[in-house]
Amino acid sequence: MAFATIDLSRTEKLRQQEPQPAAKADGAGVALQRIEPVSAAGRGIPRWLRRTSGPVALILLWHIASVTGVLPGEVLAGPSTVLSSASRLIETGELPQAMWVSLSRALIGLAIGGTVGVSLAVLSGLFRLGEDLIDATMQMLRTVPNVALIPLLIIWFGIGEAPKIALIALGTAFPLYLNVYAGIRNVDQSLIEVGRTIGLSRAQMILNVVLPGALPNALVGLRYSLGIAWLALVFGEQINATAGIGYLMANAREFFQTDVIVVCLVVYALLGLAVDFTVRTLEKVFLSWRPAFNGA
């Protein structure tokens, strides 16, 4: 019995010497950490640096080829020559004036073509009668190459500004029509049923359900139309142009000035990039309610 008592006492002492588990801390004492998704975590190199690395590498390769003589100046002027030509054109005022004229043509043509395309798409998408009267004609006309219409446009509108703007309007109308029409017809049917259940009128259904649902497709169509607007602008400014970027390119082609031609091409690219950035900004503003995949 004595040995049993000694063993029990030793066991109690050992239990008392063991570290006791800490009591649960209340909510105020817990250190909070912000959990970030893997896609939002830093990856070392800033994204803006990764996006600019490609163009910078291309310009550097172009410069090396020009300096070493691999790319002769008669074939393509080097970056330094192009920069000096751009500076000269800016100082004389030729380049800013040409940019303003070309941008005005593109925006006016886009406004006309976009208005026509969106209006026809809304009529065709919302009403079956409109679809029967409009859609077949639009599907037929969109397969006709716009460049093939230049002779007719010259006959109809002359050789002034009208055929250039008409060519841009024709090119930009069809992408907007197709995307807005598809956006209206692809609105989730369950949303339509919910609108009917809560008693929305036809006008309220169109304004609050159908058109917001078609907005993502409409913005995609706008981006396509902007790209086609610049392409149509290049062809349009070959029609007896007396001003604009195409006019500068035509004159440079006559005198084999590859540096001026490259300047005009860069201006086309920068203007297209600027308007594309504008559309991306509109997407972020008007589609902030719509979750999207930002890339892995």
What does this structure look like?
The chain has 296 residues and is mainly α. The chain has a single domain (74-286), classed as MetI-like (MetI-like fold), CATH 1.10.3720.10. It is 73% helix and 0% strand. Helix 4 (94-126) runs parallel beside helix 7 and helix 7 packs antiparallel against helix 9. The longest helix has 35 residues, at 202-236. The radius of gyration is 32 Å and the shape is flat. It starts with a helix and ends in a 10-residue tail after the last helix. Mean pLDDT is 79; it is low at 1-8.
Précis, in short:
By secondary structure, this protein is mostly helical. The chain is 73% helix and 0% strand. Residues 1-8 have low confidence and may be disordered.
Write the layout of secondary structure elements.
Elements: H1 2-17, H2 47-68, H3 79-92, H4 94-126, H5 128-141, H6 150-157, H7 161-185, H8 189-197, H9 202-236, H10 245-254, H11 258-286
Helix pairs in contact: 3-11, 4-5, 4-7, 4-9, 4-10, 6-7, 7-9, 9-11, 10-11
Protein name: ABC transporter permease subunit
Membrane topology: Multi-pass membrane protein
Function: Probably part of an ABC transporter complex. Probably responsible for the translocation of the substrate across the membrane.
